[in-house]
Structure formats: C-alpha cells, structure tokens
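The methods section describes the discrete structure representation at length, but only in general terms. The central task, working out the structure tokens from the amino acid sequence alone, is never made concrete. Nothing conveys this as quickly as seeing an actual entry. For illustration, here is how one protein appears when written out as sequence plus structure tokens:
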Amino acid sequence: MAAYVSKCPRGAYLNSRDLDLGTNKDANTSYAQASIWGLSYFKNNFRRLAQVKTLVDPAGAHDYEGLSYVSETPFIIIDLFKLRSIDIDIEESSWVESGATIREFYYAIAKKSKVYGFPGGICHTIGVGGHISGGGFDTLFGNYHYGLAADNILDAKIVDINGRVLDGKSMGEDLFWAIRGGGGSSFGVILAWKLRLVPVPPSVTVYRESKTIEQVIFDFLFLETFEKLLPWMQDNFPDLCLDQTKFTEMSWIESVLYFAGLPSNEVDVLLQRTQPSKRFFKAKSDYVTEPISEAGLEDLWQRMLQLEASELIPTPYGGRMSEISASETPFPHRKGNLFEIQYLVFWNDDKETEKNIGWLRRLYASMAPYVSKSPRAAYLNYRDLDLDFQQDLGRNHDANTSYAQASIWGLKYFKGNFRRLVHVKTLVDPGNFLRNEQSIPVLPSGQK
C-alpha cells in the first residue's frame, strides 16, 4: 500500500499504536531516533512535543530510570512544570509546590533568612515533589541532625484517583504515611508539601581535598566554625592529615553553591532550570550494617580503578536518622545502618552501554558479602530496574503484578513497610490506575 498512501512521512494514528514503526530502546533515545515514529504520528508537531517534554523533564532528571517518560506500555505524562509556587514562613513552615526544584526552594529560603535551611540534598535540579516523596536524604547536610526531607513534612496536598484535592487530615493517616517515603506516584498526584525549615548557624565550614591513587575526593560540611572543627578532626581522623588551607567558612546557601561547583556569590544561578550533564549513566545502591573488611575494601578499590568514569559515594547514617523508628515513615533504613553506598558509572557513547552496565553489575555482585542481607536493601530515589538482572524480575511488566512478584524489589526499598504500602494502595487505588515499572501493587479483591 505504500504507493497509495501518505508519504514523507507515511502518517499513522497514535491511538492505533504500532511499535513496528519504531520504539525507544532505552531512556536515552535521541530526537533523531524517535523521529522515525514521532513524525508518523505527529508530523511537524513532533518537534514542539519534544520541546515541551524537555521542559517538563530535562534529560530524565526526575527519575534514575527515566520512568517519567519511558515505558513498555502507553502512558500519561502529568505536567507539573508550572506548579512552582514557594511560600516561605521562617517562624512557622513553608509550602512548596511539587514542580519547584530543590535549588529554587533553597533560593527562596536564602532570600528570607541566613540562619535556616532544609535537608533536601545536593542534586539541586530535581523536582521537590518526587524527591521528598521518596524519602529525600542529603549526602552532606542535615540528615544526621534533622533526619530526611520526608521527616520534615508537616502537611501535603494531593489529588487522589477520584479527582479530590486532599490535605493531610482529609486524606487520612495511612495515605499521609505512605506518601512520606513510599513514592507519591503510586497513590495520587502530589501538588504541594508543607515543610519544616531547620536552623543552621550563620557560618558553616566546608572541606574538599583530592587524595592520591586516581583521585579520592573528601567532601564534608560541618555546622560549626573552623576553630571547633579542626581539633575534633585531628583527634578522630589523624591519618587523614588534613590540609588546613582546604577549610573554608561560608553561609549555608554558599555551601549549596560550593558543592554544586557554582560561584558562591551568584545565588541567582539557582533559578536556572538547565541540566548540567547529558551523559548516559547507571546507578545502584547498598546499605552497610557492619564494617567492611580490609580485603573487601581492597577488592572494591581495585574494581573502581577499572573504569575512569565511575564513582562511589558513601553517605554516613546515624544521629537523628537512627532515632526515628523504621516504621515511622515508609523509608526503613534507620538504626543499624552505618552508611549507604551509591555506585555510579558514566559514559558518552551509546555503543558502550552494555560494557558499562556489565561492569556495574559485576561490581554490585562482588559487594554482596559486605552489605545488608535478607533483603539486600536499596534506596527508592536511586531507582534500579536492574535489581534482579539475572531473571529480569525487578519491575512490574503489566498491571497485574502480584504481591509476591513485586516483593522482589519492594522489600529491598521498604523492608517490613512494603506490606502496609500495598494495603494503602489497595484502598486508595484498587484498580491500579496509577502504576509504573516499580509502583506499589494492589492485593487481589477480597484481600484488603
């Protein structure tokens, strides 16, 4: 029929979807590749759709696996880009709409006060809505003293599956519990968070130094002055031989800019919504409950040296994190965890994808003796569809994924809280309309 139908492009109707026209193979499909099917469905409108998509979710910034714009089945994108209002009340609390980025929230705080902040992390380009609903821990600031971002939620506004706009009281205790670390997208559309700001001193101390052997970077932030920090570091970590010239005192908001690699005197740069990197990457996470042996550390070190563009980020736990019960919110990784590990690998050429993911899988497998077990825990916001890569069981493949199947990844993210999350999901969305590759499943009818 090619001779008798439309040409350049040969048109097609989206609702009669045809994957034979072409598909996205992964989260990094280029505009040119997607044009093969995009122009058939949308003709010249495809370019504008791609531009809108880039504004809504630049480079997949809302999800490590790109679930906000890639799926095995047809799906809907809900655009929260314009829900960016931030209302700061230093003495009470602050309302932040879900479409705002972490850096926009930090900017708004800094404009009102130099002695308040928020433990929202150093990945400043991500959206407030998803980050906080997954727990939201901060690699450098605050979690030891103030807990997670989700531990500082006071209220929320959500649209449920029936289109009702609910606050913390009207949504009920169970749903309010579930969205504070269980991933909001399984339960509704979170419009805004009411958050507790935390006090910070007028001056904090930062330290950054690169050590030998293929560059190890020591970064830390101390909520005190240099004079109080140095004696403590010398007593507790004498082998580090810290360089006193590497200590710098600054305000909290300046430390935000410093660790982001931005000029510390240009606070307005936090209002930019550009993505700093367009590289491919893949990540995995682990929790460590006992000290890793010297032999284990040596093996880890040698493996990390195999690839230049690899990173390992350990984040210490304890303090306020350990004081909060593991069932207080869906985020269960509390008392008993020494630190969390994030493994990352980066590459620029899509032909290197298989090689790099293979390397990361081998590294992850090699760490099994040294990390948490039964289950081997993982962090939801470092989403990993590859958690069971041997059998490809780390994701929902359809709308009817069973509790047992979803437990393969659900127990890793939520441990004993997974069952309660499934119960809440079954109550608020029994038809499982809100779902993705790692959304919370529903129980069969009669098992509520």
Remarks:
- Residues 353-366 form the longest helix (14 residues).
- Confidence is low (pLDDT under 50) at residues 51-61.
- The chain has four domains: 2-56, 78-202+251-276, 205-245, 280-370.
